[in-house]
Request: fold
Amino acid sequence: MTLRDKQYDLVLELYYAVFEDCDVITRSTRFINESKNAIRLMRLMSMQLDFDTPDFTMTTFNGSWTREMKRNDIKIRAGKHVNASYTGTSSNRANPFVMLSREDTTEDAGDSFGFNLIYSGNHYEAAEVSGFGKTRLVSGINPQSFCFVIGTGEDFESPEAVMTYSAQGLNGMSGQMHQFVREHIVRGEWKKKERPVLRKPDIVFIIKRRDITSKPSVIW
Reply:
């Protein structure tokens, strides 16, 4: 889908890809500068999705070292709720995967929506309820301190955002996401093979006593 601003000679292309085997749709954008002047791009989301109702729970996965992927559920009834990273990586503090589910959704039944940004840098996912009771979800590169200069005839492409829906609850949605990653993200020799387990080698630690005339103790 091509959107064109005739006054400023700017073009925005929206790319959709359908993966029927996984019930997944991906979305990305491409901004093209056809004007005679350089453009400073300050914000470009990969995906925007609007819902008619505000009765969602937003699930994010946050944490830190050794405490990764801690699940957090937030009921979205008003205002804006943001899941983002500003560390230069997607990080274990805020994973770029988020979920939206209905209040009565369980592990095996109910509406469940999954969204994942295929990007390892600063990311941004926000769900906002408007004054009219509509819910909007956006996902893309974190706009904080983002600025990209696009010269005449140049373009900028956003990372792909993955979207999926299941009426079989959180497990159904999770299964579709796993299948998509297995079939369309993982690649190389080990894509369809069971990976070998690496054996940690024995390490010898030598501790010297204070008495330098005695032999060192060896601990395995």
About this structure: Residues 216-220 have pLDDT under 50 and may be disordered. The radius of gyration is 23 Å.
